[in-house]
Amino acid sequence: MARILPVSSFDCVVFGATGDLTMRKLLPALYHRWRDRQFPASSRIIGAARSSLDDDGFRAHAEAALRRFVPAESLEPAILAEFLGLMHYRRVEALGEEGWDGLVSLLAERPEQVRQFYLATSPELYGPICQRLAQHGGLHQKSRVVLEKPIGHDLASAREINRAVGKVLPEAQIFRIDHYLGKETVQNLLALRFANPIFERLWHADMIDHVQITVAEEVGIGGRGGYYDKAGALRDMVQNHMLQLLCLLAMESPISLDPDAVRDEKVKVLRALRPIPAHEAHLSTVRGQYIAGAVGGQPVPGYRSDLGSDAPSLTESFVALKLHVNSWRWAGVPFYLRTGKRLPRKVSEIIIEFRTPPFSIFPREAVGMQPNRLMIRLQPEEGMRLEMMTKEPGPGGLHLRPTALDISFEKTFGQRYPDAYERLLMDVVRGNTTLFMRRDEVETAWNWIEPILQGWADRPEAPRPYAAGSWGPTAAIAMIERDGRTWYESLE
Ligand code: BG6
Prior knowledge:
Number of domains: 2
Oligomer: single chain
CATH superfamily of the largest domain: Dihydrodipicolinate Reductase, domain 2
Helix content: 25-40%
CATH topology of the largest domain: Dihydrodipicolinate Reductase, domain 2
Number of strands: 17
Low-confidence stretches: none
CATH class of the largest domain: Alpha Beta
Largest sheet: 9 strands, mixed
Mean pLDDT: 94
Strand content: 15-25%
Bound molecules: 6-O-phosphono-beta-D-glucopyranose
Distance between the termini: 35 Å
């Protein structure tokens, strides 16, 4: 059974307190941690936003959100009432001077507490908020600031944010969150790779033919069109989540689990990514945008209707790309990444496809030999599956068939998987930055992404349409098939 390691008392100030992320993810995550008694009752959750609310008004919003986003069986009335009692609200003007003194004097009532400032706002506000916190005396040695992704929209804006935040806080107090790193199955990649030497021996270009990473979503852009249309799938998913998955898969063994030891190895992978120059971006990437179709048997509108605009948009809701890591371990091994909205189902998985036998001793009629594959399912139905060839039992000749060693984490561990934010919010209180992105990681990732964005801007073609409920544009299939490979079939 998992153990709950209590954290010290804290004040968690959430900027953007009335927004979607706070209501859908942060408050439910804190509720679960409270329910497990992971933090003391002297902790406070302080909402900060522009809306004119008082403590009770904020609590009413929070209660409605918790009733919606926490499963009914976990919502115990007495615990909910206690949790709401931890909440406060202060109106602050992120770009003005209003409200800051009130917020800081509330914090000053408990000077000993860890202060967690969670910036669930648009990234343009990260610098100004940190600056005001410093000016008004809201920061102390036990203060930590949490920055939600995206950190900027390109390298220059990311650097500017990092510079502005770095002016008021040292790196050890800055937590750039990528919630994928808080997922249990993503952390399990470290266990898989570095607690199982049998895999480490195979984790090499000598044995691996190629790697696929798929992060598919059923949902469309929902009510987030304003943000999403400026971002697109490359900025929203690849620059952060997918490159982080790639880092964990491709990195060398860190010397320990210390934050910098892990992050040093991850950043080496990012630095080793073979650049995709702007003029070649169209060769290694495919952009798509969904049109009306059906997901899960339900008709759904296209991207532009979701956006509420008839004007054409060049923003991609799907991207597939092929990349290489320039290192001895990975020389010649392509990594194929794809992610998109309005795909047939929500699934995140990694496929490691091993090389085929150099020579087959089996007769042709023994059936098509399939390469060994390791499939790591990150969500849902978390687990792992190792596919291998076996002899079909019975007489009548030697017939081979692919079978699988299957591990279901749900069956093995049989417990609720905590949401990524639960783990990460408690890590912030502990001051553990291992699962957060360091400044150079974010900037190196942008540095690699930027020529692709440039290449797309130089050839402003419309993204290829794909019907909602399909696996993206056919060009994405053609991209991998040109190399004599195919997207993993269990998805179909
Ligand atoms: C967010 C993206 O970071 O991750 C969203 O901004 C996306 O567009 C979400 O839907 C996916 O996260 P998860 O945990 O549902 O896979």
